[in-house]
Structure formats: structure tokens, C-alpha cells
Write a structure and sequence with these properties.
The complex is a heterotrimer of chains A (613), B (212) and C (120). Chain B is mostly helical and 212 residues long. Chain B has six helices and two strands, in the order H-H-E-E-H-H-H-H. In chain B, a hairpin with a 5-residue loop joins strand 1 (62-63) and strand 2. The chains are: A mainly alpha (613), B mainly alpha (212), C mainly alpha (120). Chains in contact: A-B, A-C, B-C.
């Protein structure tokens, strides 16, 4: 009987042979590590795209009355910059670490639902491509990443721009929800024996809380986007005042999603920093329980602060006061975390390696971002700050100074585990200093510009208002930032050419991922570990009285792994097909929707009835 | 570990002792609570203002400036019947599951079949109601009641339809003898989804049909 | 089997209610629905009288209480939450709390908006 390439792969996997290579193996993979690499490389690509968009914006803003970009192009670029960085860069970079590291940290062989995991990636890729395909039509989204009504109504945005944004986000939402279910169940159900919840690594804990936020917040924006779609496609008036609707309802719904979303963006980074600081201080995390509970409290309270994005909409004194209080309150658990990070480093034996540089800088940058955030929490102050560059400064300090610095720390920290090679320390330090200097040069002056009255979302500004010098400085800063990432890419290329010989535990780590070879074999653990406390690897080294021997690579015979499958990819194509059909012209569209739906149905059906992996 | 032992041991070796697929469907249901909460919020928010015409409206008469008279559009009896049948369908699916767990294939087929019938009737009732409303002049575009009503109940109806398809697939599997007691979890998961869809209707029914 | 310490032993499948209990709950659900509709007819229906008018301020709370009872019965008995591991209850109830908060908050915020903030 003829065997397909897929059957041969399955036979390989079952017999414990070396990992298959080639395009088909990547298209059909259900291995969390490969899916993590797929997420990471795609996300890094989109991060560079978003970065180029930012550079173009900065060039335009570098001089007053500039004509480098038209207003329409500017609107598309700042919308796509924000949307890309949030949904196509930070979230999937976090997903890279969720995928690669969570199973390793909890001592599992894979996630709970490997095919659902693959599905999430392919749908994410489809969403990213869909969102950016607007550029091909000269109609990239241009309404801001928050899509305020009723700018997004058919009356004021008759083109395709908003539609690309609407449907692109819906596709991405499906990917995020599927992944959130997967990791929620994985973390609860697949922990190694002895790993109670309060013994989990902090990255896994913060990621767990992030999944809960994803599960609760994304349905809200799904509905908001559906209502917007109905307004634009079916003539309803949910957000259109002329028909009795309320544009402000969009803002409420969007920010009920949007505020938890920013915690989705930063909590994984908190988790990463909580891993790096202890390892490079040679000291356990200070106040583990407080870190867990403060993270959970931030997430819970994050659902009660959303209207602080709406202080300027005239909600009235009672609403303003309520949300002001909750916003101030949320600073408390955040402060607890910062003090605990400082307490971790205090008295430690600090190892000044690149991951630690980024983690320490994270603390400083996030404090600055957090302080400006608390300043916004006062409605009268926010009346001045809102819609000005002061806000732009705030969110870049927490999202770049916070999330990106933390993710970069994670990148350098976990690079050897993922790819079997160490990144170059010297180039890493050059990257760090250029990034730190470039970042602060770009975004610190925005505080001043904002308080001096420069509004947001403007494609240019006139002379004589005192904005020129600082804008010029910020543009220079952004170029230094770009240079820093060039250094990072050079570092990757340079070390990639070297041998794949990184040790299992280059940093003297505390958690389970450092107990297996770098990169791990397909099944992760030759024997499922048994855990007796937090920081299991430090405990093992203490008992042994010294470093652990390099773990051997074994044959993997008899270890059962889930089979590769192409049905997740097929189902993802179906989802994409439906959305493309919805966007397409009336003659073609319905056929696209039906075709996409059929492909989706076939994909899901076969997936459900595939022989158990 | 051999395939056989792995399969048998798989759903027992979890940290919580609970089956991962069952945990997953509950997680999904939790997420869906927020989906329907947002749709219901949308309905209730717009309820405060939609009497800024044109009609028709659910419980209120409305006369247009031109003198056109719109009767209240909601008709309780049919919807009540649909509601009752949806409730009974939850009972039937629980009985089906009990039969599946006991290995009684005939009981499983009977009660699961009854569940599907009730689900189909409910969808049919909704389709009838929608077309009836359209004939009476209420569409998505007419007013905010129409927009909110059709969106909320339409998405609920879509969930019911997907649930019916899922249950029909399982019924066919049961006919082929592929739902022995060891595989009753497959039905339990579908049943949990089905109950959730019923529970959402338990909220929608009074909010939309009974509260003015 | 692998030579490693097993994790928590499989949760013993809890005893499910008998078919009779399920049917009884079904009857209660039906009765509650009939009461809901009956309450509506009594308060606002075509033949509503003085009693109905007196009941109007209590209509919504009583109605919602009856719906909540139906909700709880289906969740606890048909969805087996009462007998199953409490984790399932937590996974269901926590989002419900957030959902309720959001519904109430939006009603309140938008009510204020419509009452005071709209111009004309």
C-alpha cells in the first residue's frame, strides 16, 4: 500500500527517528517547539514591518510642515504601526514563549491540544497577512488601532480600510481564543508530578493569568466588531447617532477589551523578568506568593478600569471618580511587583550578562511608564494629557520599555535553549545600549511635547510652536533604535553560522527547561521529572553539591508523541477563505464564503475523526 | 509506553485528575459567557432609547408621524413553546448521556434523537419568527430594536444550529455503535455545549420577550 | 507503564442523579417558565387588572429571580456542576461574575449618557 509523505512522517515519529525536516514537516507540525519558532519568526518579521512604519512616521514628523507622507498615508501608517505592534508583534512574541517554554517549565511533553495549537498559529498567520493585504489595495486600515465610532461608519469611512481592520482582527481573535483555551488547560492539567500551582515558575504563572484575560476580553471585542460590521454591511445604527445609536458605546466595548488587552501585553513580560532577575542575581524570586496574587489582582481589577481611556468623553463626575479610584488602586499590586523585583536583586550576586541588562532596564523603564500612567488616572489632569503626546510617551514606555525590553531579555535568555547556540555577548551589549539610548531619546521628549500641547495623531505641525527641536531629536532616536535591531539581526546571523553546541544550562538556571539538552529533543523529557519545590534545578544542584551533568541525547524509543497533521492548516485556510469571501465583491463573495465554510467544515470534521495521535 | 496503555491512561494522568477535553469545553463556555453578555448588554443599552421610532416595537404600539399604526410585534405563545422545548431538550440530552454511560444504545438513540428534534423545532420557530417580523416591517435596519433583536437572537440561533449539527454527527456515530460507555465523554462535551446554549436562552427569553 | 510516580489519581466519577431526578427538574423548569409567562400576562397582559398594576414595580426582580433559578437548576444538575469537581464551577462562575459586572456597568453608564450627555 502506498504511503503518503505524512504517513512516513508518522512512522518516523513513532519509531523515534531523528526529527524530519523539510517544508511539509513544518506545515504539518504539531510540536509546540516548532510552533513556537513559527510564531517567533513571523512575529519578529511583523515587528520589523511595524518598526519601518514607525520610522516613516518619525521621518514625516522630523520637520514641521513636512510633505514626506500625505495625511492619508500617515493615517494608514500610524494605524498599522499600532495594530501591528500590538497584535502581530508583542502578542505573538509572547506566544512564541508560551509555546516553547510552558510545556518545558511544567515538565510536559507537549500542550494539551497539539493540533489546536497548530491551528492557532496558521490562523494568526492568515490574520496578519489579511490585515496587511490592505496595503495592496491602497486601503490599509487608517482609523487608529482603536477604531473609534463613528469615524468607522460607512458615512465617514466608505473605503475598504476599516473592513480590512475589522475582519483581520476577527481572524486574529479566533487564533488567540483557541490558544488561550489550549494553554489554560495545559497549565492546569499537564504539570509534572509534584508541581503544584504554587511551585510553578513565575513565567508560567503570569502566562496562565494572561490566558484568563484573553478568554474573557476577546469575546467583547468580537461582539463590538460584529456590531460595527452590521453597521457597515447591513445598515444597522448601533454606533450611528442619526439612527439612535451611540458612538460612545463603541468606546466602552472597545476598552472593556482594550484595557485587559494591555495587561495581556505586559504580564508575560512581567513573568520573563521574574525568571531572569533571580537567575542572574543567584537568588530566588522575592515574595513568590505576593507576585502570584498581585498578578491575579491586576488581571481582575483590569476589568474595572476601562473608562480611564474615556475621561474626556463627559461621562459625569460619578463615573470619572469610580474609574479614577480603580485605576489608582491598580497601581498598588504593580508597585508590589516592582518592590519584589528590587528585593530579588538586592543582596544578590549579580551576573552582568545581556539578559540581565534588559531585565534591569525593564524595571526602570516600566516605572517611568507606570508613573505617567498614574498621572493619567486623575481626570482633571487627564483632560490636559489625553490626545496629546504625553499619552504616546506613557504607552511606549510601558509597551516598549516594558514589554519589548522584557521580551528581548527573554530572547537572549532562552535563545540557547531554543536554538542550541549562544548569542554573542558583546554584540548583545551593543544592542542593549543602542536600544536603551535610542528608546529614551525617542520617547522621553514626548512627555514634554505632550504637556506643551502637541496633539496625537497629527501628520504634521506648524512652525513656531516649539515642537521642532524635540521632534527632530525623537526622529534621530528612532533611527538609533532601528540601528539597535540591526545589531540584533547581525548577532543572530553571526551566531547562527557557528556550531549548535550550547550547553543545556548556560546560565545556572532554576527551572526545568534547563535540565534537558539545547535544543530539546522532540519529546522534551526522556523521563517525566518529579518536582519537590520551587526552583527544582537549584534544589537538584544543592543536593548534588555542584553542577548537574550535561543531559544526554537519547533515542526516544517508546516515547509516544502526537502525530503531525495537516487538518489544522486546512481548517485555518477555511477560516481565511470565509473572511476573504466576506470582503470580496458581491458577485464573488458568497461563493468565497461558501467555499471557505466548506473547507473549514472538511478540515474540522477530518480533524475530529483523525485517528488519535 | 505502548499506544494502547497510553490511550487508556491518557485522560487519567492529568494534574487535576480531570479530562482535558471536558476542562476545555468548560473553558470555552466561560469565554462564551462574555460573548453573550456583550450582546445582551448591547440589547439592554439600546432598549433605553429605541422608542425614537420608527416602529414596530416589541411591546409597545407606535404611530408614525404619517399616521401609520404599528402593533406590538412580540407574540408570546410560540416563543414560549420554543422555550419549553429547548428546556426539555436539555432534559433529553441528559437522559441520552445517562443511557450512553450505561451502554444502552437504544435509549441513547431515542433520547438524543428527541434532543435533536427539539433543537430543530426551536430553530424552525426562530426562522418563522424572523420571517414573520420581516413581513410586519421589522428588519435589521428598521430601528434599534430590530438591529439588537436580530443580532442577539440570531447569534443565539446560530449557536443552536451548530449544536444541532454536532448532535446529529454524534447520533450518526451512535447508530454505528461508536459511542460505547468508554467514549461517552464525546457526548458529554456536546451536551455541556447544548446546555449552555439553553442557559443563554433562559436569560434571553425574559430579557427580550417579557421585560418591557 | 513508565517508572515514575503517578500524579493525582483519576478523579472518581461522581455519582450522577437518577433519571427520575432529571425528569423532576425538567418539570420544575417547565413550571417556572409557565410562571414567568403567567406573571407577564397577569401584570401586562391583555386582561391585566388592578392586581397587575400593583405588581408592576416587582415584575422585573421577580422575573429575573425565576430565570436565575432555572439557570442554576440547569447548571447544577443537567451540567452536573453540583456533583463534579469544583474547578468546573469556578471556570463557569468567574466569567459569569465579570459578565454581570459588565452588563450592569454598561446599563448604568449608557443610561447616564442618554439622560444627560446627548445633545438633542
Amino acid at each position: 500500500m502506498a504511503t503518503s509523505a505524512l504517513d512516513q512522517q508518522r512512522a518516523h515519529a513513532a519509531a523515534g527517528h531523528a526529527e524530519p525536516t523539510g517544508l511539509l514537516s513544518w506545515l504539518t507540525t504539531v510540536d509546540h517547539k516548532r510552533i513556537g519558532i513559527l510564531y517567533g519568526s513571523t512575529a519578529f518579521f511583523f515587528f520589523l514591518v511595524g518598526g519601518i512604519e514607525a520610522i516613516l512616521l518619525r521621518i514625516q514628523l522630523g520637520s514641521p510642515n513636512n510633505t514626506f507622507l500625505s495625511p492619508e498615508t500617515y493615517n494608514q501608517l500610524f494605524t498599522m504601526h499600532g495594530t501591528t505592534m500590538i497584535f502581530l508583534a508583542i502578542m505573538p512574541l509572547s506566544a512564541m514563549f508560551f509555546n516553547f517554554m510552558i510545556p518545558l517549565q511544567i515538565g510536559a511533553r507537549d500542550v494539551a491540544f497539539p493540533r489546536l495549537n497548530a491551528f492557532s498559529y496558521w490562523v494568526f498567520l492568515a490574520g496578519g497577512l489579511f490585515l496587511n493585504s490592505g496595503f495592496l489595495f491602497g486601503a490599509a486600515p487608517d482609523q487608529g488601532w482603536y477604531g473609534y465610532a463613528n469615524l468607522t461608519s460607512l458615512q465617514y469611512s466608505p473605503g475598504l480600510n476599516v473592513d480590512f481592520w475589522m475582519f483581520g482582527l476577527q481572524i486574529l481573535g479566533i487564533a488567540s481564543l483557541a490558544a488561550a483555551v489550549n494553554f489554560f488547560v495545559t497549565i492546569l492539567n499537564m504539570r509534572a508530578p509534584g508541581m503544584t500551582l504554587m511551585r510553578m515558575p513565575m513565567f508560567t504563572w503570569m502566562s496562565f493569568i494572561t490566558q484568563v484575560l484573553l478568554l474573557l476580553a476577546f469575546p467583547v471585542i468580537t461582539v463590538a466588531l460584529i456590531l460595527l460590521m452590521f453597521d457597515r454591511f447591513f445598515g444597522t445604527h448601533f454606533f450611528v447617532p442619526a439612527g439612535g445609536g451611540d458612538p460612545l458605546l463603541w468606546q466602552h466595548m472597545f476598552w472593556i477589551f482594550g484595557h485587559p488587552e494591555v495587561y495581556i501585553l505586559v504580564l508575560p513580560g512581567f513573568g520573563i523578568v521574574s525568571e531572569v532577575l533571580p537567575v542572574f542575581s543567584r537568588k530566588p524570586l522575592f515574595g513568590y506568593a505576593a507576585m502570584v496574587f498581585s498578578g491575579a489582582f491586576i488581571a481582575f481589577l483590569g476589568f474595572g478600569v476601562w473608562s480611564h481611556h474615556m475621561f474626556t468623553t463627559g461621562m459625569g463626575p460619578i463615573a470619572d471618580t469610580f474609574f479614577s479610584l480603580t485605576t489608582m488602586l491598580i497601581a498598588v499590586p504593580t508597585g508590589v511587583k516592582i518592590f519584589n523585583w528590587l528585593g530579588t536583586v538586592w543582596g544578590g550576586s549579580i551576573q552582568y550578562r545581556v539578559p540581565m541588562y534588559f531585565a534591569l532596564a525593564f524595571i526602570a523603564m516600566f516605572i517611568i511608564g507606570g508613573l505617567s500612567g498614574v498621572m493619567h488616572s486623575s481626570p482633571p489632569a487627564d483632560l490636559q494629557q489625553n490626545d496629546s503626546y504625553f499619552i504616546v510617551a506613557h504607552f511606549h514606555y510601558v509597551l516598549f520599555g516594558g514589554s519589548i525590553f522584557a521580551l528581548t531579555a527573554g530572547g537572549y535568555y532562552w535563545w540557547p535553549k531554543m536554538f542550541g547556540r549562544m548569542l554573542d555577548e558583546t554584540l548583545g551589549k551593543v544592542h542593549f545600549w543602542l536600544m536603551l539610548i535610542g528608546f529614551n531619546l525617542t520617547f522621553f521628549p514626548m512627555h514634554i511635547l505632550g504637556l506643551n500641547g502637541m496633539p496625537r495623531r497629527v501628520y504634521t505641525y506648524p512652525e513656531g510652536l516649539g515642537f521642532e527641536t524635540l521632534n527632530r531629536l525623537e526622529t534621530v532616536g528612532s533611527l538609533i533604535l532601528a540601528l539597535s535591531f540591526l545589531v540584533f539581526v547581525i548577532n543572530i546571523i553571526k551566531t547562527w553560522r557557528g556550531p549548535r553546541n550550547a550547553p543545556a544550562d548556560p546560565w545556572n538556571g532554576a527551572t526545568l527547561e534547563w535540565s534537558i539538552p539545547s535544543p530539546p529533543q522532540e519529546w522534551n523529557f526522556a523521563e517525566v521529572p518529579v518536582v519537590h519545590g520551587r526552583d527544582p534545578l537549584w534544589e537538584a544542584k544543592r543536593e548534588r553539591g555542584g553542577p548537574l551533568p550535561e543531559p544526554p541525547r537519547v533515542s526516544g524509543q517508546g516515547i509516544h508523541l502526537p502525530h503531525p497533521s495537516y487538518w489544522p492548516l486546512v481548517a485555518a485556510l477555511g477560516v481565511a477563505g470565509v473572511m476573504v469571501g466576506v470582503m470580496a465583491e458581491p458577485k464573488v463573495g458568497p461563493w468565497g464564503i461558501m467555499a471557505g465554510g466548506l473547507i473549514l467544515f472538511i478540515g474540522v470534521f477530518n480533524w475530529a475523526f483523525e485517528p488519535a495521535g | 509506553m505502548s499506544d494502547h496503555a497510553h490511550a487508556a491512561a491518557q485522560h487519567l494522568e492529568t494534574s487535576t485528575g480531570l479530562d482535558s477535553r471536558k476542562l476545555a469545553i468548560w473553558t470555552f463556555i466561560g469565554s462564551e459567557c462574555l460573548f453573550f453578555a456583550t450582546l445582551i448588554s448591547n440589547y439592554l443599552v439600546h432598549k433605553q432609547t429605541w422608542l425614537t421610532g420608527p416602529g414596530p416595537f416589541p411591546h409597545e404600539e407606535w404611530v408614525s408621524p404619517a399616521g401609520q399604526h404599528f402593533e406590538p410585534i412580540i407574540e408570546i405563545p410560540l416563543v414560549t413553546l420554543g422555550t419549553a422545548l429547548l428546556l426539555f431538550s436539555s432534559l433529553f440530552v441528559v437522559l441520552a448521556l445517562a443511557n450512553a454511560q450505561r451502554g444502552n444504545r437504544n435509549g441513547l438513540l431515542l433520547w438524543l434523537g428527541m434532543t435533536i428534534m427539539c433543537g430543530l423545532f426551536f430553530v424552525g420557530m426562530q426562522v418563522y419568527e424572523f420571517t414573520h417580523f420581516v413581513h410586519k416591517g421589522l428588519t435589521l435596519k428598521t430601528n434599534l430594536f430590530g438591529a439588537s433583536f436580530f443580532t442577539l437572537t440570531g447569534f443565539h440561533g446560530t449557536h443552536v444550529t451548530l449544536g444541532v449539527i454536532w448532535l446529529i454527527t454524534l447520533w450518526i456515530e451512535a447508530v454505528r455503535g461508536r459511542i460505547p460507555p468508554a467514549k461517552s465523554l464525546n457526548l458529554e462535551i456536546a451536551a455541556l455545549y447544548w446546555h449552555f446554549v439553553d442557559v443563554v436562552w433562559i436569560v434571553i427569553f425574559p430579557v427580550v420577550y417579557l421585560i418591557k | 507503564m513508565d517508572a515514575h510516580a503517578p500524579p493525582t489519581p483519576a478523579a472518581h466519577e461522581p455519582e450522577h442523579p437518577s433519571a427520575v431526578v432529571y425528569v423532576k427538574i425538567g418539570v420544575v423548569l417547565f413550571v417556572l417558565t409557565a410562571l414567568e409567562v403567567g406573571l407577564y400576562e397577569f401584570t401586562y397582559g391583555g386582561h391585566a387588572g388592578a392586581g397587575g398594576a400593583a405588581l408592576q414595580p416587582f415584575f422585573v426582580p421577580v422575573l429575573l429571580l425565576m430565570s436565575a433559578a432555572k439557570f442554576a437548576l440547569v447548571a447544577m444538575f443537567y451540567m452536573h456542576l453540583k456533583q463534579d469537581n469544583r474547578l468546573f464551577t469556578g471556570v463557569f462562575v468567574f466569567p459569569l461574575i465579570i459578565a454581570t459586572v459588565i452588563i450592569l456597568a454598561l446599563i448604568v453608564l449608557e443610561a447616564y449618557h442618554f439622560a444627560f450627555a446627548r445633545s438633542g
